[in-house]
Design brief:
Blueprint: E1 6-10, H1 15-31, E2 36-41, H2 46-49, E3 57-60, H3 70-81, E4 87-90, H4 95-103, E5 108-112, E6 123-125, H5 132-141, H6 158-168, E7 178-182, H7 194-208, E8 211-214, H8 221-231, E9 235-237, H9 244-251, E10 256-260, H10 263-269, E11 274-278, E12 296-298, H11 321-324, H12 328-341
Parallel strand pairs: 1-2, 1-4, 2-3, 4-5, 5-6, 7-8, 7-10, 8-9, 10-11, 11-12
């Protein structure tokens, strides 16, 4: 590390946040060639980072589990202090994350001015209304110099590929599209109604011959199992059966992903898949729209939006209009538009919307 630094990135929020912080690791390696970059994340996100070439080591902080509380925080800080990091980049805006790098006595600590522990940083960066990928890179821009922008990256290995092969089988069937649907979300109000995902899937199967894959985590398994039964043939449910890397490898084979504003959106962005994200209580201006070109956002311009920064368990005004006003026909038409601009594994078919 003659030219490099020992750098710690702390992002212990949700899985999507970790995916969107992967360009920060890449940019840090480019800015400080030969650096040793460690990335701290929650256990659920570790699988995403294990093969990332820009991350030397993944540090697990189980802040909601067996490392909950002040004693665990103190022990983790003591462990980090022994690592002698030169620089901490903290996109996560919690007091705990700021306190952790301060207790670890990392000499340079850069975070956002809207962090609950902003006063513990040596440099505070203005939290701007821009995409989260760009916003995270502002932490490095605070050190001056040019920062190149890259897309989120998820790297999988041959074992992951083999497991996905067992789900996909022959993905070169003439004229067959591979479409993924992600109907879940931690927040109930961010979910487009499940029955509409089912109807969308049935239309795609009937009118385009698509193969449908349902993706999600273990918490989505019951929902996706029910939807798979409703959809019937040409639908494979992978929720809770694949790791995050394997889900990304599956999405890399799909032409389209339709997702709520949740982690699968960012999984899809990290692959060759085109993403359609349905926004309800939240808005793209928060910085979590699909990153890059060719993706689509579907939303309704309502005076009650946004009603929260993350979503909630119930609609504050009891209508859930932000989701209910988005029809299956509208989403179906946007899927067909992207499919027509794409190419199937063997041939591209000209598709028309049947009204």
């Amino acid at each position: 590390m003659a030219n490099g630094k020992k750098i710690l990135i702390v992002q212990t929020a949700f899985i999507g946040d970790v995916i969107l912080a992967t360009p920060l690791a890449e940019a840090a390696q480019q800015k400080f060639p030969g650096s040793h970059i460690d990335f701290m994340a929650i256990p659920a996100a570790a699988n995403l980072l294990e093969k990332n070439p820009f991350v030397h080591r993944v540090l697990i902080f189980d802040k909601r589990g067996n490392q909950r509380g002040l004693t665990a925080l103190w022990k983790m800080a003591a462990r980090l202090q022994q690592e002698h990091y030169d620089l901490a980049l903290v996109p996560h805006r919690s007091l705990r994350s700021a306190l952790l790098v301060w207790l670890a006595k990392i000499p340079q600590r850069i975070g956002f001015d809207r962090s609950a522990g902003a006063w513990l940083f040596t440099k505070r960066v203005l939290y701007r209304q821009k995409h989260e990928v760009e916003r995270n890179l502002d932490l490095l821009r605070a050190l001056n110099g040019t920062i190149s922008i890259s897309s989120p990256k998820i790297i999988w290995d041959e074992k992951d590929t083999q497991i996905v092969d067992s789900f996909c089988g022959d993905n070169t069937i003439k004229g067959r599209w591979f479409c993924a649907l992600a109907p879940g979300s931690v927040w109930a109000t961010k979910r487009w109604p499940a029955e509409r995902f089912a109807e969308l899937a049935r239309r795609l199967i009937a009118e385009t011959g698509a193969q449908i894959y349902l993706i999600g985590g273990q918490s989505d398994a019951e929902l996706c199992a029910r939807l798979a039964r409703e959809i019937g043939e040409a639908c494979i449910n992978t929720a809770g059966k694949l790791t995050l890397r394997q889900s990304a490898a599956l999405l890399d084979r799909c032409q389209i992903l339709v997702s709520n504003d949740s982690a699968p959106t960012h999984l899809g962005v990290a692959t060759r898949c085109k993403v359609i994200t349905i926004f309800g209580p939240t808005v793209p201006a928060f910085g979590f729209a699909p990153f890059g070109d060719g993706h689509v956002v579907i939303e309704k311009n309502l005076p009650c939006r946004p009603c929260s920064s993350h979503g909630s368990k119930q609609c504050p005004i009891g209508t859930h209009a932000c989701m209910l006003e988005i029809s299956v026909q509208e989403v179906f038409a946007r899927v067909l538009a992207l499919l027509n601009a794409s190419s199937s594994p063997v041939q591209n078919k000209n598709l028309e919307v049947r009204r």
